[in-house]
Specification:
Elements (H helix, E strand, L loop, with lengths): L4 H15 L4 H7 L2 E7 H6 L1 H13 L2 E7 L1 H9 L5 E4 L2 H9 L3 E16 L13 H13 L4 E4 L5 H13 L12 E3 L4 H9 L4 E6 H6 L7 E4 L6 E9 L9 H12 L1 H9 L1 E2 L2 E2 L2 E2 L14 H19 L1
Parallel strand pairs: 1-2, 1-3, 5-6, 5-7
Antiparallel strand pairs: 3-9, 4-7, 4-8, 4-9, 4-12, 10-11
Length: 315
């Protein structure tokens, strides 16, 4: 079946272009498309749909977004089914590049994770700045039947960060077959927030943007925030064109350069929902690699590759 997919696409292009009086080549040139695999949490904030139109107009192209968990987005890149990935799980990103599937990773912006739950807070975590301690208290309260914790359970960047925090506690990541208070939704962030909200004793970890996006629909409160361990950087990675000849590497390079461009970075900082800034630009800035940011050396490497491209296309 896999071998028939390009043929099917070709037949569709020929059929559509013939109906419009165009050759297949004309159709491809007019409808040049960039496929971006990204995360549900980023997509649902609306940031990309805010940034993309200017790029589409500038280059007369169409950007197609595939919103899934980070693990699934990287799998699409591994299979050559997208042109670039825009994700937020450093360990998975590094593995993707080390295995030869990705090229020229660059950190673009960040927001942060927050721990949310019911206002009465049966786990007693309100105001903690130590996220590890908050998870220990949730675990203890869960074992005593006082609360439940909802994990996305979808190989997303959010779940990866959750696992990292559980590891820091010295406890094993809870098993829903053993720890009945620990629930895996298998859903994106918005769905997980809604499910958690239906439980009067429910807690979860979420990126701030997804929470703000639903703030008028849910009663969950921010209980733990502003911890270094909760910083959440997003990065773009080119898909290696040697994986699949369909990968549009030239357009992918233009798009990532556009996201790095100072004018676009300014748009990122200005983007708000409910009067709250959701993201902070960070192209060319260093921080701790433990949190997914780049070291000074890695930033220098990114600048050496991307700055000349930005200058060529956007100066």
């Amino acid at each position: 079946m896999a071998g028939k997919k390009p043929l099917l696409v070709a037949l569709i292009i020929i059929t559509v272009s013939a109906a419009a009086g165009l050759t297949a080549l004309d159709y491809i040139q007019i409808q040049q498309r960039l496929i971006v695999a990204t995360t549900t949490s980023l997509y649902e904030t609306g940031l990309l749909t805010y940034l993309i139109p200017s790029f589409e107009v500038r280059w007369n192209v169409k950007v197609h977004l595939i919103a899934v968990g980070t693990g699934q987005a990287i799998a699409l890149g591994r299979d050559g089914d997208c042109d670039l990935v825009l994700v937020h799980a450093r360990n998975l990103e590094d593995e993707f590049i080390q295995q030869g599937y990705g090229l020229h990773r660059v950190t673009l912006w960040y927001n942060d994770f927050i721990i949310i739950g019911p206002e009465n807070d049966p786990a007693n975590i309100t105001g903690l700045t130590n996220v590890t301690e908050a998870f220990i208290r949730i675990y203890s309260a869960g074992e005593m039947g006082r609360c439940n914790f909802y994990s996305r359970g979808d190989s997303s960047g959010t779940e990866e960060r959750e696992k990292q925090i559980w590891l820091n506690t010295g406890l094993l990541t809870p098993d829903p077959n053993v720890n009945k208070w620990y629930k895996r939704t298998g859903q994106g962030m918005s769905e997980t927030l809604i499910i958690t909200n239906e439980d009067p004793a429910g807690y979860t970890i979420t990126d701030r943007g997804s929470y703000v996006n639903l703030i008028n629909r849910i009663s969950l409160k921010i209980l733990v925030e502003n911890s270094t361990l909760l910083l959440n950087p997003y990065s773009a990675i080119l898909v290696n064109p040697e994986i699949n000849q369909r990968v549009n590497i030239q357009l992918a390079v233009k798009f990532i350069a556009y996201l790095c461009w100072s004018e676009t970075q300014k748009m990122v900082d200005e983007y708000k929902k409910n009067k709250i800034q959701l993201f902070h630009s960070c192209y060319g800035k260093s921080n701790s690699t433990d949190l997914g940011f780049d070291t000074d050396e890695q930033v220098a490497e990114s600048l050496a590759y991307w700055d000349p491209i930005i200058k060529a296309y956007y100066s």
